[in-house]
Amino acid sequence: MTETGPIVVFANFLSDLAVDLDEGQILTTWAQQAPRKAWLLRPGDVFVTPVPLSREFLRYVYDLTGVPPESVAVIEVPPAGAVPLARAVREAGLLEQVRALAGDRGAALLPTALDASAIAFARDIGIDVHPYPTVEAAEAALKTTMLLNTKTGFRETAEQLGMRLPEGRMCRRPEAEGVAREILRDHEGVVVKPDRSAGGHGMRFVSRDDLRGGAALLLDTVGGPEGLWVVEECLDVAESVSIQLEVTGSGTRALFSGAMRTVQGSFTGYASPLPPSCAHVAGELEEWGTALGRHLSDHGYAGPFGLDALVDTEGVAYASESNIRRTATTTPHAMVTRLTAGSATAHPAWAVSKGWTRTPMGFDWALARLRASRLAFDPDRGEGVVLYADVPPDGRSWRYAVIARSAGDVEEQETALAEVLEFEGG
């Protein structure tokens, strides 16, 4: 962000943009990642978070970013169940506090998800929504934003834009089994995806054997009894990749690309840049992403978005979904860019992932281990490990970022990290 005005960083992970609010448990789990938004803070900013941040973590962030602690305001919103963050702020009686901190200083709201509740919240406190010139402009982008965060909306648009897609069909939940059986006549397996889903939530991988002998296709409850689903051929996947882009007033620009780390279709981490095995798809990804960016711009959208793809064992890329929002990699990339600016590492390789320690530990103890082993991020070198999401609630499931000069160096540091923090399987 290059704007000089203050920003209200609004960590509204509890949003209906990608998943129905009925999926309360998964949304609450995702909200535990809210502390990472602290890496976006600049002097004068306000951070509205649905989970508390430890003092140790905030001190660590301020030390690395050079932000004076007294120059920012952190508003921790008490738990209110699976409700949008804007509603939780109102129920906690914090609306006036946010308005007082932001409303008379020309601030803009920076939501994790551009949804109706975030736009209403911006109106309530009298500020615009970043990066739109007005609240009305942000609201005008809502229809397209919601549509392209669905699997069906993406497939329709991707076909219009000429992207290569896995063979598949859209259908209602009661029809999903029949559609799966049809596609399984020509393919060994299918992937069955709920229309509104993120991070692999609700996805099923189904083989021919799974439906033999009259066996039924058992689906998650996502989307309700008549919800939309997408059934696609299951590709022989070598890599899951993505490109992250940004729509601005001057056009669409690619920010970075990389390979996703997944387990059964669920996102577990990311490494940038693209590995050599699939670097050849970079041009096609950028071409598809730029076309999607033009489409988004034509429909009023501005800001970051991601395009995911699958690269099969023949090296052919297939577009799989779009994420028209700040994704799981948007803030880590901003953090990496910020921390390496002016360092010896001009164009770093980096990865974000998660490791489980054998026993729980506090933030300062984990950081002390990194520093003692010289793995902790060094601002002068522009390399090292960053504990970018605070101490986890269980003290064991640590999210981390590794920044280094090359992908090989990232891999070496991850191996050393697993030993230093005694990760299970490390």
Automatic annotation (TrEMBL):
Q: Which Pfam families match?
A: PGM1_C (PF18105), PreAtp-grasp (PF18604)
Q: Name one GO molecular function term.
A: ligase activity
Q: Which UniProt keywords apply?
A: ATP-binding, Ligase, Nucleotide-binding
> Is Nucleotide-binding tagged as a keyword?
yes
Q: Which domain of life is it from?
A: Bacteria
- Where do the ATP-grasp domain residues begin and end? 155-353
Q: Does the keyword Nucleotide-binding apply?
A: yes
Q: Which InterPro entries match?
A: ATP-grasp (IPR011761), PGM1_C (IPR041356), PreAtp-grasp (IPR040754)
What is the protein name stated in its UniProt record? Peptide ligase PGM1-related protein
> What lineage does UniProt assign to this protein's organism?
Bacteria, Bacillati, Actinomycetota, Actinomycetes, Kitasatosporales
